[in-house]
Amino acid sequence: MVEWLYEAGIGEARAALVDGDDILEARIEREGTGPRVGAVVAAQLVEAGRSALVTLDWPGAPTATLTGLPPAASIGAALTVEITRMALRERGRDKPARARLADAGAAPGDGPDLRARIAASGLPVTELRPTDPDRLEQAGWSELIDHVRTGHWPFDGGALWVDATPAMVLIDIDGGGDALTLAQVGAKAAAAVIRCCDIGGSIGIDFPSLSDRKGRHMIDAAVDAALPQPYERTAVNGFGLMQIIRRRDRPSLIEQVVLDPVATDAALLLRQAERAVGAGVLTLTARPAVIDHIAAHPAWTALLQRRTGRPVQLTADAASKGTGHAQ
Prior knowledge:
The chain has 327 residues and is α+β, with helices and mostly antiparallel strands.
Protein backbone atom coordinates (compact mmCIF):
# COMPACT_ATOMS: atom_id res chain seq x y z
CA MET A 1 0.00 0.00 0.00
CA VAL A 2 1.23 3.46 -0.86
CA GLU A 3 1.12 5.70 2.21
CA TRP A 4 2.93 8.53 3.93
CA LEU A 5 4.91 7.83 7.09
CA TYR A 6 5.22 10.96 9.20
CA GLU A 7 7.42 11.60 12.20
CA ALA A 8 7.30 14.79 14.29
CA GLY A 9 10.94 14.62 15.34
CA ILE A 10 12.84 16.96 17.61
CA GLY A 11 14.05 19.93 15.59
CA GLU A 12 12.97 18.25 12.38
CA ALA A 13 9.79 16.74 10.96
CA ARG A 14 10.28 14.00 8.39
CA ALA A 15 8.03 12.12 6.02
CA ALA A 16 8.40 9.32 3.51
CA LEU A 17 5.99 8.19 0.84
CA VAL A 18 6.42 4.43 0.86
CA ASP A 19 5.18 1.56 -1.24
CA GLY A 20 5.72 -1.41 1.05
CA ASP A 21 9.32 -1.03 2.18
CA ASP A 22 10.41 1.23 -0.69
CA ILE A 23 10.75 4.99 -0.22
CA LEU A 24 9.30 6.84 -3.22
CA GLU A 25 9.56 10.36 -1.79
CA ALA A 26 11.41 11.71 1.25
CA ARG A 27 10.86 15.10 2.86
CA ILE A 28 12.24 16.88 5.91
CA GLU A 29 11.25 20.20 7.44
CA ARG A 30 13.54 21.83 9.99
CA GLU A 31 12.74 24.40 12.61
CA GLY A 32 13.93 27.93 12.01
CA THR A 33 14.17 27.77 8.23
CA GLY A 34 12.06 30.88 7.69
CA PRO A 35 8.50 31.33 6.45
CA ARG A 36 7.05 28.52 4.35
CA VAL A 37 5.44 28.80 0.93
CA GLY A 38 2.03 30.40 1.35
CA ALA A 39 2.98 32.38 4.46
CA VAL A 40 1.43 35.86 4.69
CA VAL A 41 3.89 38.19 6.40
CA ALA A 42 4.17 41.87 7.24
CA ALA A 43 7.18 43.43 5.52
CA GLN A 44 9.01 46.69 4.95
CA LEU A 45 10.32 47.79 1.59
CA VAL A 46 14.10 48.30 1.69
CA GLU A 47 14.90 48.39 -2.05
CA ALA A 48 12.59 49.50 -4.87
CA GLY A 49 12.83 49.12 -8.62
CA ARG A 50 12.95 45.98 -10.75
CA SER A 51 14.82 44.07 -8.00
CA ALA A 52 12.61 45.06 -5.09
CA LEU A 53 13.61 43.73 -1.68
CA VAL A 54 11.68 43.61 1.58
CA THR A 55 12.58 42.80 5.16
CA LEU A 56 10.13 40.33 6.66
CA ASP A 57 8.59 40.70 10.10
CA TRP A 58 9.91 37.27 11.07
CA PRO A 59 12.48 35.99 13.58
CA GLY A 60 15.91 36.98 12.30
CA ALA A 61 14.40 39.63 9.98
CA PRO A 62 15.10 37.71 6.75
CA THR A 63 14.76 39.42 3.39
CA ALA A 64 12.75 38.43 0.33
CA THR A 65 12.68 39.59 -3.26
CA LEU A 66 9.33 41.05 -4.26
CA THR A 67 7.40 41.01 -7.53
CA GLY A 68 4.45 43.19 -8.47
CA LEU A 69 5.55 46.24 -6.51
CA PRO A 70 3.36 49.29 -7.30
CA PRO A 71 5.41 52.08 -8.95
CA ALA A 72 4.31 54.56 -6.27
CA ALA A 73 5.72 52.48 -3.40
CA SER A 74 8.60 54.16 -1.59
CA ILE A 75 11.43 52.90 0.57
CA GLY A 76 10.20 52.15 4.07
CA ALA A 77 6.63 51.38 2.99
CA ALA A 78 4.78 48.82 5.12
CA LEU A 79 3.51 45.93 3.00
CA THR A 80 1.86 42.54 3.44
CA VAL A 81 3.43 39.86 1.26
CA GLU A 82 2.89 36.19 0.49
CA ILE A 83 5.88 33.84 0.22
CA THR A 84 6.00 32.08 -3.15
CA ARG A 85 9.39 30.38 -2.70
CA MET A 86 11.30 29.66 0.48
CA ALA A 87 14.83 30.87 1.06
CA LEU A 88 17.38 28.51 -0.51
CA ARG A 89 20.88 27.55 0.47
CA GLU A 90 23.38 26.92 -2.31
CA ARG A 91 27.05 26.11 -2.30
CA GLY A 92 28.86 29.38 -1.68
CA ARG A 93 25.75 31.55 -1.45
CA ASP A 94 22.21 31.78 -0.13
CA LYS A 95 19.15 32.95 -2.02
CA PRO A 96 16.47 34.97 -0.22
CA ALA A 97 12.84 33.94 -0.32
CA ARG A 98 10.58 35.19 -3.08
CA ALA A 99 7.33 36.97 -2.37
CA ARG A 100 4.44 38.78 -4.02
CA LEU A 101 1.98 41.28 -2.62
CA ALA A 102 -0.65 39.44 -0.58
CA ASP A 103 -4.31 39.61 -1.50
CA ALA A 104 -6.31 42.25 0.31
CA GLY A 105 -7.54 40.98 3.66
CA ALA A 106 -5.21 37.95 3.71
CA ALA A 107 -4.68 36.77 7.30
CA PRO A 108 -1.06 36.80 8.49
CA GLY A 109 0.41 33.41 9.32
CA ASP A 110 2.82 30.73 8.18
CA GLY A 111 2.20 28.51 5.17
CA PRO A 112 1.18 24.84 5.36
CA ASP A 113 3.68 22.68 7.23
CA LEU A 114 4.96 19.30 6.10
CA ARG A 115 2.17 17.41 7.89
CA ALA A 116 -0.48 19.52 6.18
CA ARG A 117 1.14 19.20 2.76
CA ILE A 118 1.30 15.42 2.80
CA ALA A 119 -2.29 15.24 4.07
CA ALA A 120 -3.32 17.39 1.10
CA SER A 121 -2.00 14.69 -1.24
CA GLY A 122 -5.06 12.61 -0.37
CA LEU A 123 -2.97 9.55 0.44
CA PRO A 124 -3.13 7.84 3.86
CA VAL A 125 -0.81 9.26 6.53
CA THR A 126 0.54 7.11 9.38
CA GLU A 127 2.04 9.07 12.26
CA LEU A 128 5.01 7.35 13.89
CA ARG A 129 6.07 7.57 17.54
CA PRO A 130 9.50 6.76 18.98
CA THR A 131 8.00 3.81 20.83
CA ASP A 132 6.56 2.31 17.61
CA PRO A 133 8.45 -0.06 15.32
CA ASP A 134 10.84 2.10 13.29
CA ARG A 135 9.11 1.85 9.93
CA LEU A 136 11.18 4.69 8.46
CA GLU A 137 14.35 2.76 9.18
CA GLN A 138 12.80 -0.45 7.89
CA ALA A 139 12.15 1.36 4.62
CA GLY A 140 15.79 2.47 4.43
CA TRP A 141 15.80 6.01 5.83
CA SER A 142 19.43 5.97 7.04
CA GLU A 143 20.61 4.36 3.80
CA LEU A 144 18.77 7.04 1.84
CA ILE A 145 20.43 9.83 3.83
CA ASP A 146 23.81 8.19 3.22
CA HIS A 147 23.14 8.19 -0.54
CA VAL A 148 22.21 11.87 -0.36
CA ARG A 149 25.38 12.70 1.59
CA THR A 150 27.76 10.88 -0.73
CA GLY A 151 25.93 11.61 -3.97
CA HIS A 152 26.36 7.94 -4.90
CA TRP A 153 23.19 6.03 -5.85
CA PRO A 154 23.91 2.47 -7.03
CA PHE A 155 21.53 0.61 -9.33
CA ASP A 156 21.70 -2.72 -11.11
CA GLY A 157 24.53 -2.41 -13.63
CA GLY A 158 25.78 1.02 -12.65
CA ALA A 159 25.40 4.02 -10.39
CA LEU A 160 24.37 7.66 -10.35
CA TRP A 161 26.64 10.43 -9.13
CA VAL A 162 24.56 13.42 -8.02
CA ASP A 163 26.03 16.84 -7.29
CA ALA A 164 24.14 20.03 -6.42
CA THR A 165 26.06 22.94 -7.97
CA PRO A 166 24.99 26.61 -7.88
CA ALA A 167 23.97 26.39 -11.54
CA MET A 168 22.07 23.11 -11.50
CA VAL A 169 21.88 19.63 -10.04
CA LEU A 170 24.06 17.34 -12.15
CA ILE A 171 23.34 13.62 -12.44
CA ASP A 172 26.01 11.47 -14.07
CA ILE A 173 25.12 7.93 -15.13
CA ASP A 174 28.13 5.66 -14.69
CA GLY A 175 28.51 2.00 -15.58
CA GLY A 176 29.61 -0.53 -18.16
CA GLY A 177 28.08 -2.81 -20.76
CA ASP A 178 25.68 -1.86 -23.50
CA ALA A 179 25.27 1.93 -23.64
CA LEU A 180 21.56 1.91 -24.49
CA THR A 181 20.69 -0.54 -21.73
CA LEU A 182 22.73 1.46 -19.22
CA ALA A 183 21.05 4.68 -20.33
CA GLN A 184 17.55 3.21 -20.03
CA VAL A 185 18.13 1.81 -16.54
CA GLY A 186 19.93 5.02 -15.57
CA ALA A 187 17.00 7.13 -16.81
CA LYS A 188 14.64 5.29 -14.48
CA ALA A 189 17.09 5.60 -11.57
CA ALA A 190 17.66 9.31 -12.20
CA ALA A 191 13.92 9.99 -12.34
CA ALA A 192 13.47 8.12 -9.06
CA VAL A 193 16.13 10.25 -7.33
CA ILE A 194 14.65 13.49 -8.68
CA ARG A 195 11.23 12.51 -7.35
CA CYS A 196 12.50 11.10 -4.07
CA CYS A 197 14.59 14.14 -3.17
CA ASP A 198 12.16 16.72 -4.60
CA ILE A 199 14.86 18.20 -6.81
CA GLY A 200 13.67 21.37 -8.51
CA GLY A 201 15.11 24.07 -10.71
CA SER A 202 17.57 23.17 -13.43
CA ILE A 203 18.71 19.53 -13.61
CA GLY A 204 21.27 18.11 -16.02
CA ILE A 205 21.50 14.37 -16.74
CA ASP A 206 24.62 13.02 -18.44
CA PHE A 207 23.70 9.79 -20.25
CA PRO A 208 26.11 7.48 -22.08
CA SER A 209 26.59 8.87 -25.57
CA LEU A 210 24.29 7.27 -28.16
CA SER A 211 25.06 7.83 -31.84
CA ASP A 212 21.64 6.90 -33.23
CA ARG A 213 18.58 9.09 -32.92
CA LYS A 214 16.27 6.14 -32.26
CA GLY A 215 18.21 5.24 -29.12
CA ARG A 216 18.07 8.83 -27.87
CA HIS A 217 14.32 8.92 -28.42
CA MET A 218 14.04 5.76 -26.32
CA ILE A 219 15.84 7.55 -23.49
CA ASP A 220 13.51 10.52 -23.78
CA ALA A 221 10.57 8.14 -23.48
CA ALA A 222 12.12 6.34 -20.50
CA VAL A 223 12.43 9.62 -18.58
CA ASP A 224 8.85 10.63 -19.44
CA ALA A 225 7.56 7.25 -18.24
CA ALA A 226 9.39 7.43 -14.91
CA LEU A 227 9.22 11.11 -13.88
CA PRO A 228 5.85 12.53 -12.80
CA GLN A 229 4.74 15.82 -14.32
CA PRO A 230 4.99 18.78 -14.22
CA TYR A 231 8.39 19.47 -15.76
CA GLU A 232 9.95 20.61 -19.01
CA ARG A 233 12.92 18.96 -20.67
CA THR A 234 15.14 18.99 -23.70
CA ALA A 235 15.71 15.93 -25.83
CA VAL A 236 18.91 13.98 -25.23
CA ASN A 237 21.51 15.48 -27.54
CA GLY A 238 24.34 13.73 -29.36
CA PHE A 239 26.61 14.14 -26.35
CA GLY A 240 24.14 12.37 -24.06
CA LEU A 241 22.95 15.47 -22.21
CA MET A 242 19.39 16.24 -21.16
CA GLN A 243 18.20 19.28 -19.19
CA ILE A 244 15.08 19.15 -17.04
CA ILE A 245 13.34 22.13 -15.43
CA ARG A 246 11.07 21.54 -12.43
CA ARG A 247 9.29 23.96 -10.15
CA ARG A 248 11.41 24.88 -7.13
CA ASP A 249 9.36 26.11 -4.18
CA ARG A 250 11.54 24.93 -1.30
CA PRO A 251 14.93 23.31 -0.68
CA SER A 252 15.43 19.79 -1.97
CA LEU A 253 16.45 16.97 0.36
CA ILE A 254 19.92 17.13 -1.20
CA GLU A 255 20.33 20.83 -0.37
CA GLN A 256 19.06 20.32 3.17
CA VAL A 257 21.31 17.34 3.96
CA VAL A 258 24.49 18.13 2.03
CA LEU A 259 24.70 21.88 2.56
CA ASP A 260 23.95 21.77 6.30
CA PRO A 261 25.76 18.68 7.61
CA VAL A 262 25.76 19.89 11.22
CA ALA A 263 21.97 20.24 11.31
CA THR A 264 21.66 16.90 9.54
CA ASP A 265 23.78 15.08 12.12
CA ALA A 266 22.06 16.85 15.00
CA ALA A 267 18.63 15.73 13.78
CA LEU A 268 19.83 12.15 13.28
CA LEU A 269 21.41 12.08 16.74
CA LEU A 270 18.24 13.36 18.38
CA ARG A 271 16.25 10.75 16.47
CA GLN A 272 18.62 8.06 17.71
CA ALA A 273 18.34 9.40 21.26
CA GLU A 274 14.54 9.21 21.23
CA ARG A 275 14.83 5.48 20.55
CA ALA A 276 17.70 4.71 22.93
CA VAL A 277 16.94 1.88 25.32
CA GLY A 278 17.95 2.14 28.96
CA ALA A 279 17.49 4.10 32.16
CA GLY A 280 19.32 6.90 33.92
CA VAL A 281 21.20 9.69 32.19
CA LEU A 282 20.80 9.76 28.41
CA THR A 283 24.17 10.87 27.01
CA LEU A 284 24.47 12.30 23.50
CA THR A 285 28.04 12.25 22.22
CA ALA A 286 29.15 13.86 18.96
CA ARG A 287 31.71 16.21 17.47
CA PRO A 288 31.68 19.71 19.01
CA ALA A 289 29.82 21.41 16.15
CA VAL A 290 26.88 19.01 16.48
CA ILE A 291 26.73 19.27 20.27
CA ASP A 292 26.96 23.07 20.09
CA HIS A 293 24.08 23.11 17.60
CA ILE A 294 21.87 21.05 19.90
CA ALA A 295 22.91 23.06 22.97
CA ALA A 296 21.91 26.26 21.19
CA HIS A 297 18.32 24.96 21.17
CA PRO A 298 17.52 24.15 24.82
CA ALA A 299 13.90 23.42 23.92
CA TRP A 300 15.14 20.37 22.02
CA THR A 301 16.84 18.78 25.01
CA ALA A 302 13.85 19.66 27.20
CA LEU A 303 11.54 17.89 24.76
CA LEU A 304 13.90 14.91 24.59
CA GLN A 305 13.80 14.65 28.38
CA ARG A 306 9.99 14.74 28.39
CA ARG A 307 9.69 12.12 25.66
CA THR A 308 12.20 9.69 27.17
CA GLY A 309 11.69 10.42 30.86
CA ARG A 310 15.48 10.56 31.26
CA PRO A 311 17.85 13.44 32.12
CA VAL A 312 19.92 14.43 29.10
CA GLN A 313 23.65 15.13 28.98
CA LEU A 314 25.50 16.54 25.96
CA THR A 315 29.12 15.49 25.51
CA ALA A 316 31.41 16.94 22.85
CA ASP A 317 34.11 14.57 21.56
CA ALA A 318 36.51 15.89 18.94
CA ALA A 319 37.35 12.32 17.95
CA SER A 320 33.71 11.48 17.22
CA LYS A 321 32.81 10.99 13.57
CA GLY A 322 29.55 11.44 11.72
CA THR A 323 26.31 11.52 13.66
CA GLY A 324 27.74 10.41 17.00
CA HIS A 325 25.81 8.17 19.39
CA ALA A 326 23.24 8.24 22.18
CA GLN A 327 23.07 5.82 25.09
